[in-house]
Amino acid sequence: MIAIKTLFFLADKVLNFAKNKTELDQVKYQKQTMKYLYSFCFFAIISSSLFGQVEFTHRLEFEAEFLANNFMTSFYKDGIIGFRTMKEKGFSSKLNFEMFTADFDLNQGPLKKMAVRDNHELAGYDLDGEIFYVLFQKRNSTIGEDRYIIEINLENHQTKEYNLSNVLDMELKEFYVMEGKVIFMGISESLPVLQLFDLSTNNIFTAQGIYSKNTEVLQLRKDHELKVLDVLVSKRNQYKVKEVSILTFDMEGNKLREVNVDRLDDPKLEIIEGILTPFQEYSQSLIGTFGKQRQEAYQGIYLIDINEFGESTKKYYTLEDFPNFYNYLSEKQQARKIKSLEKSLNKGKSPDIRAAFSTREVITLGNGYLIYSDLFTANNPRYYPRDGVYANNMYRMNQFGPMYNSMMFNDPYFLRGLPYGPGMNNYREGEYKFHAAQLLLLDNDGNIIWDNSLKLPGKTTNNPGKFGEISFTGEKLHFMFLDNKMLSLSYIYDGELIFENETYEIALIDQNERIRETDENSLMLSWWYDNNYLLSGKQTIRFQDNQNRQSTKDVFFLTKIAVNGALFDPEKED
């Protein structure tokens, strides 16, 4: 990619050449000048085409101190919430909680500070309407009385504090708040448990049907419209056969329904993982990957539609249904794979997907679903998925978690699992190599509209979480991820791949400043809304001070990025 500084260099050459002309022939001068002008215009056009696809529109900066925690972010209806814990200056070990809000143009509101109880640390957060909740606990403690919650009203900035001594002792995995009820899901005596704590009455409700052996909680889903909580649970019976159920609770902990998902049509196959969708016209869907029992042999993706009476219909999608599954490979590799696939199908066999095939995200549309899955391998068999550990929020390290964004970089206790809102929070060792992002668009009847595959860089990482961030508006799909210190963007229009893995440098808004250094480990990229992303991290910036002297500053930044793949011109790229 051509940097903006190239344009300034060419323009400067034109000006200096004209200024320094002495006895040159007039014709020679004109030809040389036009040569630089043509070059300038050419680079300007190309650069405009490139940067038009990725535009850095707004930026917010904070002074960054050495080893200081980064701000974590959460999105809400008026913009973003930024928050972190910070040690007091000097040799004090006391922590302060800092929080701010910013609108969609990253205009910052006041910075709010609150003292954290001694020996406590940030352990979780969630947003319920206009109320932001922050959970604190003593380091590495599983005792309820060692936790407390701060409630922050985002409209009037009033705060309240709640003790949690009545909550069951547990290793906390998930923390949610809805309708004034705090939802705790964790492990107690090696078994999963779900409790609801009423902030107004201090009453505790324990959800029934979850605390049992050989049980995994695959997903918790808040339904604000119906004011219920869905819990997707898998169990293995005495014959080691997996049984999947959907339990729905009201905010008093009463079980409203229990849907036992029938086994798959082939008794040798089972559900590996699943994501529940919101209700649409009294029906709900469960989508995920399936494979052979007690084997790491994936077969494809299933769609189970569940009506209001708990009755279900199933659809299965295997390699035979994905004509573009191998698009991420070279032409020769594709040809070999397709030939092998056809050979297996002619024998009446459906070949296995040997790499881990994990459904990461299901975007519910008015007329269907967009399903994003990652294809990757792990370097250690014990980190391969069992019972949906990769799709499950409980087991997948989340980009919003403190370890991922270096919030607790120097905290010796940060290796334990902690909940950080609607994402997973458990750190797991291992290395993962990502090969492709698989995309599938279905209509409401489960018919395939299109499928496609995007090549991933194949680099090794210790984060088994989803690799990229999707923006899907209408027929336009943008897929963006961080590739070292670069942004990598792919664009699909109406199922057709327009371009793949175009890289872009991180840029500043102020043209008088330059990036001296970017801390790669601090970078975080999230889809925000529509075709806008949010990038955050630490940088050292070079600028001119008031005395026109070169100076530097260390900042933590938030940058809003707008993408528009429609501006891509392949002829100019060539």
Describe what you observe in this structure.
The protein has helices at 4-19, 26-53, 331-346, 570-573, and strands spanning 54-63, 72-76, 79-87, 95-102, 112-115, 120-128, 131-138, 147-153, 159-163, 171-178, 181-188, 191-198, 204-206, 215-223, 228-236, 242-249, 255-261, 269-271, 275-276, 284-292, 298-306, 312-318, 356-365, 368-378, 432-443, 448-455, 460-461, 469-473, 476-483, 486-493, 496-505, 514-518, 524-529, 532-544, 550-563. It has 4 helices and 35 strands. It is mainly beta and 574 residues long. β11 and β12 (191-198) form a beta hairpin. Helices cover 11% and strands 47% of the residues. Residues 1-29, 31-50 and 388-428 have low confidence and may be disordered. It is globular, with a radius of gyration of 26 Å. The strands form 8 sheets. Strands 1, 32, 33, 34 and 35 form a 5-stranded antiparallel sheet that branches. Strands 18, 19, 20, 21 and 22 form a 5-stranded antiparallel sheet that branches.
- How big is the Rg? 26 Å
* Beta strand %: over 45%
**Ends distance:** 12 Å
Low-confidence stretches: 1-29, 31-50, 388-428
Mean pLDDT: 83
Biggest pleated-sheet summary: 5 strands, antiparallel
Number of separate helices = 4
The best one-word shape is globular
**Which percent range fits the helix content?**
10-25%
Structural class: mainly beta
Q: Number of DSSP strands?
A: 35
Features:
five-stranded antiparallel β-sheet; 4 helices; disordered N terminus; transmembrane helix; mainly beta
SSE arrangement:
Elements: H1 4-19, H2 26-53, E1 54-63, E2 72-76, E3 79-87, E4 95-102, E5 112-115, E6 120-128, E7 131-138, E8 147-153, E9 159-163, E10 171-178, E11 181-188, E12 191-198, E13 204-206, E14 215-223, E15 228-236, E16 242-249, E17 255-261, E18 269-271, E19 275-276, E20 284-292, E21 298-306, E22 312-318, H3 331-346, E23 356-365, E24 368-378, E25 432-443, E26 448-455, E27 460-461, E28 469-473, E29 476-483, E30 486-493, E31 496-505, E32 514-518, E33 524-529, E34 532-544, E35 550-563, H4 570-573
Helix pairs in contact: 1-2
